[in-house]
Structures are given as C-alpha cells and as structure tokens.
Write a structure and sequence with these properties.
Radius of gyration: 19 Å
Distance between the termini: 70 Å
Strand content: under 5%
Number of domains: 1
Structural class: mainly alpha
Largest sheet: none
Shape: elongated
Number of helices: 3
Number of strands: 0
Length: 91
C-alpha cells in the first residue's frame, strides 16, 4: 500500500519528536512512570517513525494514566495551597 505525502510527513514528524528530545525524552518517560518494557516499545516507534494499532493503544493508555496522575497532583497542590493560606492568616 503506497504511503501518501501527508502520511509520510506524519511518520517523519513522529520520529523527529522522539529523536529530537533525545535521551531527555526517555528520562521523561521513566519519570512519568513508564516501565523499561514500555520505553523499549517506544524505541521502535522512534526508529520507524510510525506505530501500529497496539502501540497506539499503549500510548493512549499511558497518556490517560499520566493525566490521572497529574489530576491527583493538582488536587493535592490545591489542598496544600488551602492549608498554606489558612496558616498564613492564623499563625
């Protein structure tokens, strides 16, 4: 099946995003809680510039997990802000 110009450009961009971030990209993924197994799966995406359906499902699942973690951290931050505000006015 031939690849259209638009599809080829998307493939190039996928690889560029991962390669452009270099080691930092994988450090960020580790910091976000991805396992070394998941990161190994991402290497294939970086090298080939495309993903299959299973890889895309994994990427979406990891994104949802990270977003949930962010939401929890933002809620904790809001509670800390409340405590700080209260204790600032009542020493």
């Amino acid at each position: 099946m031939p690849v259209t110009v638009a599809a080829a450009e998307r493939l190039i961009r996928i690889g560029e995003v991962a390669r452009g971030a270099g080691v930092g990209f994988f450090q960020q993924m580790f910091a976000a809680g991805l396992t070394s197994r998941r990161i190994t799966e991402l290497l294939a995406c970086r090298d080939s510039g495309h993903t299959d359906a299973e890889q895309r499902a994994m990427l979406r699942a990891e994104r949802e997990r990270i977003q949930a973690k962010i939401d929890d951290l933002q809620a904790a931050l809001a509670h800390l802000d409340e405590v700080i505000a209260i204790t600032d006015t009542h020493p």
